[in-house]
Amino acid sequence: MKNNKKxxxxxxxxxxxxxxxxxxxxxxxxxxxxxxxxxxxRCVTLLAxxxxxxxxxxxxxxxxxxxxxxxxxKFYWDDQYDNMAIILNNxxxxxxxxxxxxxxxxxxxxxxxxxxxxxxxxxKNMGKKKGIVVDGRDIGNCVFPKSELxxxxxxxxxxxxxxxxxxxxxxxxKKISYEKIKNHISYRDEMxxxxxxxxxxxxxxxxxxxxxxSIDQQLNLIFKIINExxxxxxxxxxxxxxxxxx
Length: 246
Prior knowledge:
By secondary structure, the chain is α/β, with parallel strands linked by helices. It has a single domain (8-245), classed as P-loop containing nucleotide triphosphate hydrolases (Rossmann fold). Helix content is 45%, strand content 17%. The strands form two sheets. Strands 2-6-1-7-8-9 form a six-stranded parallel β-sheet. Strand 8, helix 9 and strand 9 (244-245) form a beta-alpha-beta unit. Helix 7 packs across helix 8. The two termini are 24 Å apart.
C-alpha cells in the first residue's frame, strides 16, 4: 500500500478485544507508526506504584502530578518483541508494565484528569505528521477526533477473558484463574464506560468490528476500508460509518 496520503487511524475498544494485535498488523502493512496508548498509561501506573502513590490516604497526587509532567519519554519500535518500546527516564520498562499489579491499578490512574491531560498532550504531539495507527479507549473521540478512520473493536466478555487468560499462561503466569480475569475485565469495562473524563464510547463515525472470532478474519475487510479511504475518488466512496461488522 504505497501512497503519499498519510492518515490517522484510531482504534478504540474494550480491554482484551484485540486492538493491539489489529493495530500492529495494520501499521506494518501500511508502514505506519504504531502508538499503544495503553502502554503509556501503564508506564505512569508503574511509576505510581514505585512511588507508593496508592499506599497514601491522599494518593500523593499533588506530589505525583509534577513528577509526571517532567518525565522524559522516548518511543521506538522494538523488532525483537514486536511491540512499541518506551524508554522512560532512560529506563526500558517494557516487561514491567505488563505485570498483574500494574494491570489492576491502571484504571485508577487513567481516570485522574490531570494525568489524562498530560498524556493526551503527548499522544497528540506524536500524531502531528500523521501516518500513525493509535489504539486506546478515547482515541477517536478525544485524542484524535478528526481521524480519517475510526474503528471500534468489540467482543464478548468470555472471548476477551479467554484471550487474556491464554496470554498470561504463555508468559508463565499460571496462578491466576480464568474467572478472576473475567471479573477484572468486567470491572475494567465498567470503569472505562462510566469514567467521567473521556469515557469509552462508540461515536457515530466509528466503524464497529466484532472481534469475537479470529482476528485474521477481520483484516481483509479492515484493509479494504483503509484502502478506500486512502485512495478514495469522487463518486466511489462507500460509507461504512456507524456500521457493525462481524
